[in-house]
Every structure is written in C-alpha cells, then in structure tokens.
Amino acid sequence: MEWIDGDAFGDRLNRESFDVDEAALICRDMLDGIRHLHESGLCHGDLHIGNIIVLRNGRAKIIDIDANKEISLARLSSASQEGAKSADIDYCRGIIVKAFRHSQLDFTRMTDCEENLRAARSLDELRAAIDSICNQHQQSQSRIVSADGTEAAWLSGLAVSGTTADQVIGLLDTQAYFDLLDISYPTSRDDVLELLQNAGLILANGEEWDITNLAAILLAKEFNEFPHALARKAPRFVQYEGTNKLKTKTEITGHKGFAVGFAGLIEFVHSAAPQNEYLETAIRQEIKMFPKQALRELVANALVHQDFSETGTSVMIEMYQDRVEISSPGTPEIPLERFLDENRSRNERLADLMRQFGICEEKGSGIDKVVSAAEFFQLPAPDFRVGHVRTTAVLFAHQDFAQMSKADRIRACFQHCVLQYISGKRLSNQSLRERFGLENTGTGSATTSQVIAATKEADSLSSMMQKPLPRGMPDTCQTGRKSLKGNR
Fold this sequence. Notes:
488 residues; 14% strand; three-stranded antiparallel sheet
C-alpha cells in the first residue's frame, strides 16, 4: 500500500486560497483518478473532501478505495453501473465547485463555472468545463496591462469580471470616491462609470464591466463580496493584554476598502490605545499612548507599500501594553537607514490615488512625520525591522531618558540627525538635549555628548552608513566616519 504524504483537501480549504491553476490541477487529478477507477471496473461511491489528498507538489490523489465494495461495477447490473458512475461524477462536480470557490477566480466567472458544471454529465465534460474556466481566466488576466505598457501587476488584475452597471455601484463605494476627491457626485450613473473608467478603476467589457483589484482594494463596500484572495488583503487589528501574545484582548478584521475605511480604522486603533503621559513645560499631560499622526502615517505606508504578490497575508496592527507594531507583507525596496530621506513606491498607482484622497503624504514625508511626532512627545525612537517576508514599524510608549536602553538612545540620535538634515538644520548638543527632554545643564550636555559618541562608535550604524549618503549629507550625519562634528 502506498504512503501518501499530504493534506486532506478539506483541510486545505481552511487555509490560503488556491491559484486558479492550482485548483484546476487538483480537479484534473481527481478526474483522472475516477476515470482510472471506472476503467478498472470500480466506483468510489464515497468521494468527499476528506479522502482527496493534496500532495506537497500540488498534485492530488484519491484514498479510501476498496476493490471489494459492493459497488464494484462487476457486481452491478448495467443500469446500476451507470447510476454508480453518475454518483461519482456528481461527487466530482461538488469537489470542483469547492476548489474554484476557494480559488482566486472572480465571482462572476465562478457563477459561469457553476452553470457549466451543472450541465456536465460525464468526466470528459467536467474536464472540458475546467479547461474553459482556466482559458477564460488567463485571457482576462493577460489583456490587462499597466499604463507603461508592461505586464499587469496584481493591482491591474481583475477582481470581478462581467458585472452590470448596477453591480459596479453596489460593490464599490462610489460616493466615498468622489467625496475623497472633493468632487460633486455625477448626476447620472453613466457619468459615474465613465469617470471610474477614465481613472482605470473599471474596464468596459462589451455591455458589461470589469472591476480591477485596484478599485476593489480601495473602494470595496464589503471585502467579503469579493473573491477570498482579495478579501484576505483586509488589514487586521489585534490588541494583547501585556507585552506578549499570550492573551488576546481584541481582534478585528477590516471589511471596507483601504480608502473608504481608512479614517474609521485610524480612529478605532487610536481609541484602543491606553493612556500615556508626556512632559510639556514641566506639566505631565495624559494623552493616548501613540500619536494619531504617527499611527496614520505608518498604517498608510503599510497599506500602500505592501507586496500584493504575497498570498494569504495582510497588513497587521498589533498593539501591546508598551508598543504597537505595524507590519506589511514584503520587504522594502530601499535600505532601512534610508527610510527618512528616500522614497520608492512599490505600488505607484495605489500610492498616487491615496495621495489624491489625502490619505498619504507627498513622497518621502510620511516617515519624517512619524519621527517628528515621536520627538515631540519624547517617545523612544521608532524602530523599523525587516524579516524574511514582512516589514515592521514599531512605536513605543513613553519612556524617560533614564529608562531608555543604549540601543534606543543611539537609534534616536541617528534619526534626529537625519531629521535635522532633511529640515535644513544640523545636529547639535542642544537640539538632541531637547529631543530627549534633558535639562540645559552641564550634566545634561555631558550626557548628550556621550550619546553622540556612542552613536559614532556603534558598529551597527557604522556598517549601515558605508554607502555614500545622498545629496551631500553633511558629516553631522555620517556616523561611523568623521561623523557628528561640531555637536556643541
């Protein structure tokens, strides 16, 4: 007996969605297996999601086959043989529907798929229906090209194909679209569709319309009305009790498009933050732990710059008692140490629309505002981390200077130096003292000088800054070389 190493098809349905080709491969293998049984004089008789195994290479095998079952064709009359075969075909049809429903096939094509499958009466007709689904999907994807003529990225692909005008208005929050652009809502439905088409958000398809992933990801009234693969891009918020993940306090998943749901998301995240305190003119004031401006910029950056080719994952906002971590799929296209003074958009069309909506800042200014907010509220410097498949930004709760670790102080000094340069200023002992909230005394000056010296000597920053800094950045920021001169 052969040992099968894989997962039950039913278990796979509870995980990330299939590519259309992956779903098709599983279904074709299943049909080949049933055909082999029928040609061998057997029927399965009990095909379901638990006895189809998906192997590690994406192929599928059928299990729980018993040649001695009473449904062996040789034991049945001719009429009963046809009935047993038809039962297997019906089982196959149900599996195929489940596979493509869990794929990235848009729901309009899924409707056509189910109609074709219902009409199929043989294994050959089921296979022909699968081939037709795949061919139509490939044609719909290949005809979408980006503005510069290159092959379409994920955002240019189709979320929904062949919809009516009413369905477009029903699926997309067109009122919010025009409100965000500060444009009066058009007087006719045709004008609405024309403007959306001119923006590249929908495409004419004969008498019907195709909705792009870009339109859906920005303007969806409900993500769950779109294919599962797109709905999985919705941002998630998780709040934990304490400083680790052991106990979850709150967990929600966004259900609106990035643009139409952004303001509500930021309000919710900011309101969920615990109280903090900061020192202003010798008076401690109670405020939310994390500045709303910083949350807004980091969440917007995560949404805009994520790698949409990563499947089964989304932007995560994880709030702890002492910090909030905002992470997005993909690794950055510029080095971490250049986050403050350089910018490169992975998804330029998305970024441009989010800027038009007033959600994103102009290029290169978002992270600057995060660092500025941290300095204003005398928070530890934000931290930016890159993992294998995700990029994470961390905002920390208030800490007095004495509580900050050496790494926190060095990171704050480096960011302050770069921020000063971007602002046309230079790092000084005084400016760094003010950033840390230290007194203007001999002790305060000496402590600040020690932080500057430690930053100059930090191996991490020395290696970080081996490449020439852009636009003639002054020596005051070139840590690890003849750096941070004239700091008094």
